[in-house]
Amino acid sequence: MAETVTSKNLALAKAINESLRRALETDPKVLIMGEDVGKLGGVFRVTDGLQKDFGESRVIDTPLAESGIVGTAIGLALRGYRPVVEIQFDGFVFPAYDQIVTQLAKMHARSLGKVKLPVVVRIPYGGGIGAVEHHSESPEALFAHVSGLKIVSPSNASDAYWMMQQAIQSDDPVIFFEPKRRYWDKGEVNPEAIPGPLHKARVVREGTDLTLVAYGPMVKLCQEVAAAAAEEGKNLEVLDLRSVSPMDFDAIQASVEKTRRLVVVHEAPVFFGSGAEIAARITERCFYHLEAPVLRVGGYHAPYPPARLEEEYLPGLDRVLDAVDRALAY
Amino acid sequence: MTVESTAARKPRRSAGSKAGTTSTERTTRTTARKSAEPELVQLLTPEGKRVKNAKNAEYAKYVAGVTPEELRGLYRDMVLTRRFDAEATALQRQGELGLWASLLGQEAAQIGSGRALRDDDYVFPTYREHGVAWCRGVDPTNLLGMFRGVNNGGWDPNGNNFHLYTIVIGSQTLHATGYAMGVAKDGADSAVIAYFGDGASSQGDVAESFTFSAVYNAPVVFFCQNNQWAISEPTEKQTRVPLYQRAQGYGFPGVRVDGNDVLACLAVTRWALDRARDGEGPTLVEAYTYRMGAHTTSDDPTKYRADEEREAWEAKDPILRLRRHLEASNHTDEGFFAELEVESEALGRRVREAVRAMPDPDRFAIFENVYADGHALVDEERAQFAAYQASFVTESDSGFAAGSGGN
Ligand SMILES: Cc1ncc(C[n+]2csc(CCOP(=O)(O)OP(=O)(O)O)c2C)c(N)n1
């Protein structure tokens, strides 16, 4: 097995770090930009050591201004660079939301395809780390609603490594949501592997009774749910979407045609969330296959709560199992 | 000195000069302005001596009548604020708080400006203004709820005219401006003060608040605590000119005050508030100070900052400075410091006990106050949540199902 020689066991954050390093090495147009990304290596140390090795002109500590970060990244991309920008936490992307939605997303179409904006916006997102407000949100649906953006979220170290390579190589703007509570989870990364396509989902556990669909931080939870359900004799399939936009509906459909039941799990509020889109499409595509309505488990229509209540707010093992039971009861 | 980027301009369109193809990038070195001292308004030297010169005369008037008792009051405020802050840092280390943003070193800027305010003035803080909160009479234990993770704010802003802490950098400067526009419309003579950091000065919101306040002549004081760092980034990563000079471009005055000199902060803030009350519009005050600790308890300043820097600033400690002055002017006796020490310990104990006794919120708090007028979806989700909780409890142990989980 030649592969095991080159593969390494890396924490998810470190896998992104190595991926960024590889991108900086192979393409002189790649730039890293953001608050504290230089000497400090970012508040999560995802860019640790990069400025030391690539210098201040490639790994750029920016002024504390998110609109400025994304707006200037657009300008740099217009000039031929491939900026990878870091937004420090999910809740701080909103000063940049205008630039992302009105400019970054639309310029390709407005220029009749003449302008390409290969900008990656990295956003550590989601809860479960006991933080103060604005540090735990999952705003992916707010971006998915905007045409012109691609939105991905890895769930493990290997995907984090490869999806980052692919996001940087993409000529479209990519919003790269990093599951911050999984930053310290380790996994095998093989830098010589040939990765699958960026926007394809993957079955992470085969099953026959029900499909659990998730992405980012909730994939691991769904695997735990499937393991717990197996002890009760239930055989669940778990699908890691990997990409929120575009979304691999074919993969969901194929799984649902097999299992006939679907539960979607995400941390973001259920109301107008990505689960709503999945439920609608799958109902349309699989109406005659479904034995139960598509159920969703996610956050409530309420502000992300203070840390001591987040376990109540976030989907956990019991809440997902409860939805599984309800779907199986039909 | 000539700005390098214009002096050493390269031909823009020579063959092969397309960006990124060569490594001969223009270096634009910021002319770091470390020599801030001559620009400072200072009334007390680090040795505790009163300063009198032409530059500070205009501001010195505002503290001309300060009594020894008031000076002792400022000292007491700073000592107790530092004690509270130290207790909170310790509580974070003991796992009682999830996070703490310390104000260590910034006591003079906060107490000086905070004590310049009238009760009817309104304060818009960031997340670090514990000393200002103290001056407003906010119970310090109220500040700890959001850092413990039991709420996202935790006090009534109108109780003490002290707005909720704002974490999103710079947002509150616009709120302060709008509030001040309202004050002016009402014909009141209150003033508004907005706190923010040197890092925040880069945010668009702050620039927009300068624009709005200037255009509408809003009675607002922008109080920037330049503590030299925005997490790992020094002020030079935010600006090439001293921050107070920014105001000029918007058409209102800016002044840099020694942020470790409580008397100067009091004087300059009073002056700026008076301008606001007199209908003269906004002022930018840059309090030149230093964050002696880490950015927050999750930060590691050893990654980006030299120890000597902190040591140099320790020599300018705001509390020590006033103590020297009080002692040299015979404004205190030994009893004063001893009593304050006792009071300080009592405050620490009170804070510690209050935090440990702080209950976790009821789980249904998630659904409280989401809307002022209610919302059908929230009601529905609350009911589902309740049913789910109830089923869970009865299943595991019906014996103590009652009373668990609230109403
Ligand atoms: C819009 C936004 N971006 C990023 C952050 C993360 N962050 C919190 S504090 C901070 C540094 C702020 O520095 P400064 O304004 O100088 O104030 P200080 O904390 O030094 O008092 C950063 C980047 C944030 N809270 N809000």
Automatic annotation (TrEMBL), chain A:
Gene Ontology molecular function, alphabetical: branched-chain 2-oxo acid dehydrogenase activity; magnesium ion binding
One Gene Ontology biological process: branched-chain amino acid catabolic process
The keyword Oxidoreductase appears for this protein: yes
Assigned EC number: 1.2.4.4
Keywords: Oxidoreductase
Cofactor dependency: thiamine diphosphate
Record-annotated Transketolase-like pyrimidine-binding domain positions: 10-185
Pfam families (UniProt xref): Transket_pyr, Transketolase_C
Protein name: 3-methyl-2-oxobutanoate dehydrogenase (2-methylpropanoyl-transferring)
Automatic annotation (TrEMBL), chain B:
Family annotation (CDD domains): TPP_E1_PDC_ADC_BCADC
MF GO annotations: magnesium ion binding; oxidoreductase activity, acting on the aldehyde or oxo group of donors, disulfide as acceptor
One Pfam family per UniProt: E1_dh
Keyword terms: Oxidoreductase, Pyruvate, Thiamine pyrophosphate
Cofactor: thiamine diphosphate
One GO BP annotation of this record: branched-chain amino acid catabolic process
InterPro entries: Alpha-ketoacid_DH_E1_comp (IPR050771), DH_E1 (IPR001017), PdhA/BkdA (IPR017596), THDP-binding (IPR029061)
Keyword Oxidoreductase included in the entry's annotation: yes
Keyword Oxidoreductase listed: yes
Superkingdom classification of source: Bacteria
Region (Disordered): 1-38
Every Dehydrogenase E1 component domain range: 76-355
Name under which the protein is recorded: Pyruvate dehydrogenase (Acetyl-transferring) E1 component subunit alpha
Originating organism: Streptomyces asoensis
Lineage: Bacteria, Bacillati, Actinomycetota, Actinomycetes, Kitasatosporales
